[in-house]
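User: Sequence in, structure out. Go.
Assistant: Echoing your sequence, followed by the structure tokens.
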Amino acid sequence: MQRVFLITGLVVLLVVASVAGAASASIPALYIKQRVERPPVLANLEEIPEDGGLAGARLAIKDSNTTGRFTGQRFELRELEFEATTDSTEIIRQLQAAPEYFVILDLPAVTLEAVLTDDLGRDRLLFNVAAPDNRFRTELCRPDLLHTFPSRAMLADALTQYLVTKRWNRWLLIEGPLERDRLFANAMRRAATKFGARIIEQKTWDGARDARRTAQAEVPRLTQGVEYDVLVVADEWGDFGDYLMYRTWDPRPVVGTQGLFPTAWYRTIEQWGATQLQVRFSKSAGRPMDALDYAAWAALRSIGEAAVRGRSSDAVTIGDYIRTPEFELAAYKGRKLSYRPWSGQLRQPVALSTARSLVSQSPQEGFLHQQSELDTLGFDRPEVQCERR
């Protein structure tokens, strides 16, 4: 008799599952990726993955469909990839013709700016998963644009909070010759003013030296004669920053883009169930998850979470719910994440890591905010110059 009931129960479950599968509502998203042309760097120990970002998006779709089987929802992802030399007008043309409401933008800043200043033809919800430039959160923000990648201001604030907590308040700042190095250095200058640190001296690595061969002589000369607590480096491409460590005139820690660095995600993050995500991603992609992968994953999971919690498969309804104060995303960071209504930035803790060890996570204890401690990282409402209507 028990066997009969068991068989009957299995049949019922199979029927229900088949009916749910047949009635699944499709929720599509488009992923647009433009490859970035990197300048030659001295250290090539870590390859830039060809599927950067895309691997995170694919895992998010898989995760969402695990739940979608029970809610009658099917999440789909279409991918468009462009070479670094592709003109932005071609990317905009294909975006205008795309039928998807949800669009994930994995674009360099110059292309993203061109897309955002263009009339895309109809309503969409855009996710910036790659560009950390502050101006997209302060001056060029728009109501249909969300950011899952942290801004440089968020990264700099997270690092600075830790330095101030350690009372490493006197900095020697060394920045590289590239525009993105200048932008990160500017973010650190802003953070120093915001949290009460002091930049004792600023120097520039001119890019003319081969740090592999000259660092042992050049770095002591560059860093001597300055009384500082910590060396802050701005070298986003990784051209020289790694060669500053252990070569300074005085024994001082190196932080910034190398040494102790702020990041949305890194392989050293294991708390709050993060190991589960790390393992799933590694099995899926065959490599560790990085910040770009995580940003893409968070964007697609925002769509999946809103669809389930909002009990809707209508794209506009899902998009509206994502932007409400009620929306929260469980994302393996120890607290629920949500989007700032004034800039579209995803509120999130920022990890402070070395190559093989997670050191801390910001916001640090004691940095308070009237609404959310996460809003101590990056631009708060009064600092945003554009209106999101």
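User: And one key feature?
Assistant: Confidence is low (pLDDT under 50) at residues 1-22.
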